[in-house]
Amino acid sequence: MVGSVEIEVIPSELNGKHEQLPEEIDPESVLIVNENGGNENGGNGNKGMVLGRNIHTSCLAVTEPDVDDEVTGDREAHMASVLARYRKSLLERTKHHLGYPYNLDFDYGALGQLQHFSINNLGDPFIESNYGVHSRQFEVGVLDWFARLWELEKDEYWGYITNCGTEGNLHGILVGREVYPDGILYASRESHYSVFKAARMYRMECVKVDTLVSGEIDCIDFKSKLQLNKDKPAIINVNIGTTVKGAVDDLDLVIKTLEETGFHDRFYIHCDGALFGLMMPFVKRAPKVSFKKPIGSVSVSGHKFVGCPMPCGVQITRLEHINALSRNVEYLASRDATIMGSRNGHAPIFLWYTLNRKGYKGFQKEVQKCLRNAHYLKDRLQAEGIGAMLNELSSTVVFERPQDEEFVRRWQLACQGNIAHVVVMPNITIEKLDDFLEELVEKRSTWFQDGKTQKPCIAADVGTEFCVCALHK
Ligand SMILES: Cc1ncc(COP(=O)(O)O)c(C=O)c1O
């Protein structure tokens, strides 16, 4: 212990020996707990989660500097070598990344010069605080761009650059709750977990709505659930691309359902567009997300389709709603209407930089490329006899969960039950997909040889027509 800071010291490791860089969690060391509390290590199936364990399989310990300058030189060299090896592992991990919707293709070299500044946009983007090292001018430029994209006039919107899509959801649902304090939150079962977290955080009544096999909200079920709660306003989370299947909820049908059920002006819609919020506007046949429709807010993640070295996001809502949520803060000389206090002032500059470089046309091209490549992947998987599905407006290809966890980790695939997905982002080329397919097909040829392991059935997840298990092929 040093002062009140607890530090794990591993002295031998500074004397020439290098500690191992953490690679990934060793699956054998992780306790998997199923929903009933029993252990469930190994196998594929429906795994539970790691609960209540602080597992230190690997860590880079923080050690106290030595008073001796000579040793300090060694320390610097050691730290440089740790960082160099870490960088190498990042390069390798970046090459084999298919499962998360992050565009890893960007070059922000020109912004390196800003790294020495502690840029913080605390407070309201539109009300300058006393803290001068900020980037509000970039932030507001980016917000204007998004407000234009989603068709809300400059003097009618309010928004801010968030830390991530989750913060956008937390904010959007909070605005809805402030507008309708006794409102019930409705969200489809396939909504992101942050939506249900918001309900828990704000102690809101939350109704889960069924989904169609595509992953879209089932508006027949929605209607019947609305009818049971006609006395309370409705706050709805509409998915502009679900996490696992990339399904887009039918916003127009959601609005129609609300109106038909008598909710006319007693609803608030938050659109969770974490990934597709920025892709949909560039897909010709896609339904429009627009503030010309009766929606209250839209959020998107900045590090997903745009691509950014740090997580970030954008939240846009109607100016008329924000007063309900705001408080003046004398100490800041600004207004508090955000979820967080301090806010990353670098993120808006990164977003501003990419929006300026690519513009609407650049994004449109990238969206088209992603959709084309996603179709290519889906077609090739199906041609190899692998169950696969791709929603119409999506670049998320869903397929049978690979039977080899090492393969899943190597390609960083996100899996749920019997399915896995690849999210085709701008950095994912046909060559990369070919490498992946080649490896998958080769590995797969051994998985079912023993006759005991069966091809997973994915009919319940994606529909029988996309499943090739023994029963459905
Ligand atoms: C539909 C959806 N909403 C929200 C989020 C949360 O975004 P973030 O990871 O930026 O917090 C995700 C993340 O994948 C998502 O898929």
From TrEMBL:
It catalyses: L-serine + H(+) = ethanolamine + CO2. GO terms for biological process: carboxylic acid metabolic process. Keywords: Decarboxylase, Lyase, Pyridoxal phosphate. Its cofactor is pyridoxal 5'-phosphate. GO terms for molecular function: carboxy-lyase activity; pyridoxal phosphate binding. Pfam families: Pyridoxal_deC (PF00282). PROSITE patterns: DDC_GAD_HDC_YDC. InterPro entries: Group_II_Decarboxylase, PyrdxlP-dep_de-COase, PyrdxlP-dep_Trfase, PyrdxlP-dep_Trfase_major, PyrdxlP-dep_Trfase_small, Pyridoxal-P_BS. Gene3D superfamilies: Aspartate Aminotransferase, domain 1 (3.90.1150.10), Type I PLP-dependent aspartate aminotransferase-like (Major domain) (3.40.640.10). The modification N6-(pyridoxal phosphate)lysine is found at residue 304. Belongs to the group II decarboxylase family. PANTHER family: PTHR46101, SERINE DECARBOXYLASE. This is Histidine decarboxylase-like protein.
